[in-house]
Amino acid sequence: xxxxxxxxxxxxxxxxxxxxxxxxxxxxxxxxxxxxxxxxxxxxxxxxxxxxxxxxxxxxxxxxxxxxxxxxxxxxxxxxxxxxxxxxxxxxxxxxxxxxxxxxxxxxxxxxxxxxxxxxxxxxxxxxxxxxxxxxxxxxxxxx
Amino acid sequence: xxxxxxxxxxxxxxxxxxxxxxxxxxxxxxxxxxxxxxxxxxxxxxxxxxxxxxxxxxxxxxxxxxxxxxxxxxxxxxxxxxxxxxxxxxxxxxxxxxxxxxxxxxxxxxxxxxxxxxxxxxxxxxxxxxxxxxxxxxxxxxxxxxxxxxxxxxxxxxxxxxxxxxxxxxxxxxxxxxxxxxxxxxxxxxxxxxxxxxxxxxxxxxxxxxxxxxxxxxxxxxxxxxxxxxxxxxxxxxxxxxxxxxxxxxxxxxxxxxxxxxxxxxxxxxxxxxxxxxxxxxxxxxxxxxxxxxxxxxxxxxxxxxxxxxxxxxxxxxxxxxxxxxxxxxxxxxxxxxxxxxxxxxxxxxxxxxxxxxxxxxxxxxxxxxxxxxxxxxxxxxxxxxxxxxxxxxxxxxxxxxxxxxxxxxxxxxxxxxxxxxxxxxxxxxxxxxxxxxxxxxxxxxxxxxxxxxxxxxxxxxxxxxxxxxxxxxxxxxxxxxxxxxxxxxxxxxxxxxxxxxxxxxxxxxxxxxxxxxxxxxxxxxxxxxxxxxxxxxxxxxxxxxxxxxxxxxxxxxxxxxxxxxxxxxxxxxxxxx
Lengths: 144, 578
What we know:
The complex is a heterodimer of chains A (about 140) and B (about 575).
Chain A: H1 11-29, H2 33-49, H3 55-71, H4 105-108, H5 112-133
Chain B: H1 6-31, E1 35-44, E2 47-55, H2 57-80, H3 87-105, H4 110-128, H5 134-161, H6 169-172, H7 180-196, H8 205-208, H9 214-235, H10 237-240, H11 244-265, H12 270-290, H13 294-321, H14 334-337, H15 339-353, H16 359-373, H17 378-403, H18 420-444, H19 455-476, H20 485-488, H21 490-497, H22 502-552, H23 557-577
Antiparallel strand pairs in B: 1-2
């Protein structure tokens, strides 16, 4: 499914995306900042050179650029730790509170005091909400 | 009232047991004692189930080291994992791991070894998947399944051992060493040890297991769990010496050492570099063990445990400060920002390289000199010395990347040495990393080995170390106009940087055929013939039959009468015939 194009991406956006990926790739290859800057400027110059080409030529250049990027891709790309692909991505899963509402009654029965207090607090919260913001409009409740 | 945290309680308990074990081991070593404790669990008529424990200097010393490292790691975790909501679970898992390790160390019996061994596998799986992202789950699965092969090998060895009537292998090793059955047990135990110690072709799980929290890596994946395989083979060393098995292991472990050393030079993940370095040192231990020098393997195992745990703890402190980022390309100039951590890091790195008078020097130098004196083939000799050079090379590269130059990390990062609890844990091990080698050398080898080598051979170790260091420095060097060296040799870099494609082979490579086969079977059997003759055919037939039945029930008087006549005829025929 990942390969199915879900939207039409304009040529401009494709070029921008290629440029960004090329820079990220350069970042992976050249780790010292000054060296990277030098390479990045060169890369920018290469893109700028072909700025005002016609569409057919632009598409050919885009295809060749993407091929070049693929062939020069770093074997261990530099990822941000907390972003997809990074080592700390989605490391700790904090379960949302509503999961407890979907417990089976038998499971809930094992912690009677907790759930009694929880129900009480929910009621108090609803009362507080209604006092603060008024009763919800019945037409808004349709999505349930 | 101030409560003691679970970390402090566990630390105090473990360190005190560790000290007791250490003193006992000295006593056992000096008096040359071995205690064999038999504990009869059940005795019914002539059947008795006996639990046996073996206490000698080796097991006690290993136990004291494991406990000491575990205690310091737990102490360190107090701060490292302080933001974690499940720290109690974490400490419990680490303690369970230590228990399993203890059971493994003191067992002279294959069954109880299997108990400890399986415990290690299970707990290490739980620890690898401690962080709950997909990477950790995949790494955990790879770890657990790779180790499972070893568990199965041990189970098979237990089945074979039934030939002898008991599983106390220690009684049979010497007298039965030329028996065919014993050789099979040797092969199986070697297979088990190779999986646990991540030798080729089971190497891919060790770098993957770095998805675990860093204290776990410091304890489990550097100093204790992975050395369990080496320890098992130390116990079974009689089967390896002067046999084809030993030669085979020498080749594989030499290749592991070489592959890991090469891989570490192309790796950018801080923890994975250290993991590959562990793999390389495990290869060294295995190879010297396969040549018959089990005491040397034990010596290197212990010193390696000390400085590698420290190295991991320093790496953890760095990662903690870098906001979980492990990429060494993002580091730089850490010696200015984190001087104490950097000092510990450098000491452990130098100990790993074999810098004279640090822990690693005594064991590594001795191993290389013994190798120089032994009769081994040129290829193995090359692997030994080249890998030593590679070790220095990647260590220097690592230091160059992380300690020197400018900080490459994102701005607004507070880097400092403020984690005093973590630092105290590290300083404890720092002390041991400096004096551990000489101390053990004087303790284990009461009469030093006679090493007699020509000056060239003697200097060879030093030469490979210095040239390795220089190459490490040179390959990391870059200026404004330099082209990345690994970019020039792209294919080679990819090959070496991905551990000779071993992670792909042991995951996709293994699952590829069953998956493809499964697809074919699914397509042509599940959805093909089986569906045609099974589900669909049955359905069609049932539909036909029920249509016929419906036809019969269609209130057709003729059919009823015909059936009535038919029944009368059948009954009559029965009456006449009977």
